[in-house]
């Protein structure tokens, strides 16, 4: 069984520059419906993880690798995902309102019915992403240019 608290503590030491400590390796971890509000996961390896229906609101996932992860119905409201790798991720029905997705890679991601209300999308890569029925009102896609509400 994974001791998630211990992993987060070690990751915090990694972020603080402690020698000999590696970034959190959470590849293919199953954390469905987890409460990760405000979690510090900057640079974490979450490739192929299942975080569906989890609460990651206000979490720091900047530069994290979430490629191929199941993030459907997850709450990322107010989260920092700047520079994150989300290629091929399943973000169907995810709440990304007020999230910072600047310079993130969402190529091939499924964002069908995702809520991107007032999200920062500056420099994000959406090549081959599915944005069908996604809510983009107020999202900033170029510096100083927001989609109308």
**Count of all domains:** 1
Alpha carbon gap, first and last residue: 45 Å
Low-confidence stretches: none
CATH topological fold name: Pectate Lyase C-like
**SSE pattern:** HEE
Oligomer: single chain
The name of the CATH architecture is 3 Solenoid
- What share of residues is helical? under 10%
SS field, number of helical segments: 1
Output the CATH homologous superfamily. Answer: E3 ubiquitin-protein ligase SopA
Structure overview:
The chain is mostly loops. It has one domain (24-149): Pectate Lyase C-like (3 Solenoid). Helix content is 8%, strand content 3%. It contains one helix and two strands; from the N terminus they run αββ. A two-stranded antiparallel sheet has the order 1-2. A hairpin with a 2-residue loop joins β1 (140-142) and β2 (145-146). The model has no long low-confidence stretch (mean pLDDT 90).
Descriptors:
single chain, 8% helix, 149 residues, Pectate Lyase C-like, little secondary structure, two-stranded antiparallel sheet
Write the layout of secondary structure elements.
Blueprint: H1 4-15, E1 140-142, E2 145-146
Antiparallel strand pairs: 1-2
Condensed summary:
This protein is largely without helices or strands. The chain has a single domain (24-149), classed as Pectate Lyase C-like.
């Amino acid at each position: 069984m994974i001791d998630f608290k211990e992993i987060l503590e070690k990751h915090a030491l990694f972020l603080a520059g402690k020698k000999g400590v590696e970034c959190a390796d959470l590849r293919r971890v199953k954390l469905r419906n987890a409460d990760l509000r405000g979690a510090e996961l900057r640079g974490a390896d979450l490739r192929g993880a299942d975080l569906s229906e989890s609460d990651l609101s206000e979490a720091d996932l900047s530069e994290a690798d979430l490629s191929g992860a199941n993030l459907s119905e997850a709450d990322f409201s107010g989260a920092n995902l700047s520079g994150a790798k989300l290629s091929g991720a399943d973000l169907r029905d995810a709440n990304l309102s007020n999230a910072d997705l600047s310079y993130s890679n969402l190529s091939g991601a499924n964002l069908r019915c995702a809520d991107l209300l007032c999200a920062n999308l500056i420099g994000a890569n959406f090549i081959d992403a599915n944005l069908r029925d996604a809510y983009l009102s107020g999202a900033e896609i170029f510096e100083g240019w927001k989609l109308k509400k």
